[in-house]
Amino acid sequence: MLDPGQLSARLDLEMRNDAGDGQGGIVAGFVPVTSLWARIEHVCVSEEERADAEMFTVTHRIWIRFREDIAADMRFCKGARIFTIRAFHDPDETRRYLVCRCAEEGR
């Protein structure tokens, strides 16, 4: 199991907060929920080409202390890095930790 001392990365947890653009559409936005300690584990890297630009996606497992308010449309931020939560689970069903499967995109 995880040693709590391994939660050494300080991340900001953000939730989605879309706003209207005044023309019937929406502008995607995020608002901070809290800052927390986490462990970031690199899983894999995939590359693809989008609109003549080389893009990559890095997937991570991010361990945090258990929270009831996590949802798949939330994200973690560490400086300019953004980790979008794709899925999450309680690894041993004890409500001590959550493991979040996250994607980080970049160019």
Which strands sit side by side, in order, in the main sheet?
1-4-5-8-7-6
CATH top level? Mainly Beta
Q: Per DSSP, what share of the residues sits in E-state strands of 2 or more residues?
A: over 45%
Tell me the quaternary state.
single chain
What is the number of independent domains?
1
Q: Tell me, briefly, the overall form.
A: globular
- What is the CATH architecture term? Beta Barrel
Strand/helix succession: EEEEEEEE
Annotation, overall tally of beta strands: 8
Query: Low-confidence spans: pLDDT under 50, at least 5 residues?
Result: none
Main sheet makeup: 6 strands, antiparallel, barrel
The amount of helix comes to: under 10%
Q: Which structural class best describes the helix and strand composition?
A: mainly beta
Rg is 15 Å
What is the CATH superfamily?
Bacteriophage SPP1 head-tail adaptor protein
| CATH T-level fold name | Thrombin, subunit H
Q: Give the helix tally.
A: 0
Summary of the model, kept short:
By secondary structure, this protein is mainly β.
Give an overview of the whole structure.
This protein is mainly beta and 107 residues long. The chain has one domain: Bacteriophage SPP1 head-tail adaptor protein (Thrombin, subunit H, Beta Barrel), CATH 2.40.10.270. It is 0% helix and 64% strand. It has strands spanning 9-16, 19-20, 26-27, 30-50, 53-65, 75-78, 81-89, 97-106. The chain has a 6-stranded antiparallel beta barrel. The protein has a two-stranded antiparallel ribbon with strand order 2-3. The protein is globular. The termini are far apart.
